[in-house]
Amino acid sequence: MRTVPSALASGAALLCLWPVTSSTSALSVADDRDVTAKHAARKPTKREGRAIKRAALRHCRSQESPGLRCRWRGRVSVSTVNPRFAWAAVDGPQYDNSGLLKRSSRRARRWRMVRVVGGGIQPCSYWYAVAPRRVVRDLKIRGYNESSGNFDNNRC
């Protein structure tokens, strides 16, 4: 399979310089460019999953009133763009404690909560302040853009 030059990966116009045959078409060459740019968050390893769960529940318990329980919802994903970031879903009795976690390096085992969803939809800038845009998109974090005037729940 032929690779697409880096100029095309950046969004430049497609110019097919080699002959188009039945096995390769100009459309399939353009699609190759898009495939290399796509990412998808992954499931954590068992060790990562346990550490993320522990960190998310610890943070939830520290934020809630004593005696109230936090509930683990089990949805966890680790970014493939930057494995230092993860998303974990936790329910607290007073508000949604799901949020973005970060570790100090790719191999570190200790995670810490850096942002929490809280009581409503947060603006995308709230997430961009602690994580790169590509990570926010990779983890499919939802928010709204202040400049658009559209306060619906959209992917950042």
List keywords for this structure.
alpha+beta; four-stranded antiparallel sheet; single chain; 5 helices
Helix content: 25-40%
Biggest sheet features = 4 strands, antiparallel
The total number of structural domains is 2
Strand content: 15-25%
Uncertain stretches of 5 or more adjacent residues: 6-37
Shape: globular
Number of contiguous helices:
5
The whole-number mean of residue pLDDT values reads 76
Main β-sheet, spatial strand arrangement: 1-2-3-4
Number of strands: 6
Distance between the termini: 33 Å
What is the string of SSEs from the N terminus onward?
A: HHHEEEEHHEE
Structural class by secondary-structure content: alpha+beta
Q: Provide the gyration radius in Å.
A: 20 Å
A few lines on this structure:
The chain has 156 residues and is α+β, with helices and mostly antiparallel strands. The chain is 29% helix and 22% strand. Strands 1-2-3-4 form a 4-stranded antiparallel beta sheet, with helices on one face. It has a two-stranded antiparallel sheet with strand order 5-6.
Describe the structure in your own words.
There is one protein chain. With 156 residues, the chain is of the alpha+beta class. The chain folds into 2 domains: 32 residues, no CATH class; 110 residues, no CATH class. It contains 5 helices and 6 strands; from the N terminus they run αααββββααββ. A 4-stranded antiparallel β-sheet has the order 1-2-3-4, with helices on one face. A two-stranded antiparallel ribbon has the order 5-6. The protein is globular and about 40 Å long. The two termini are 33 Å apart.
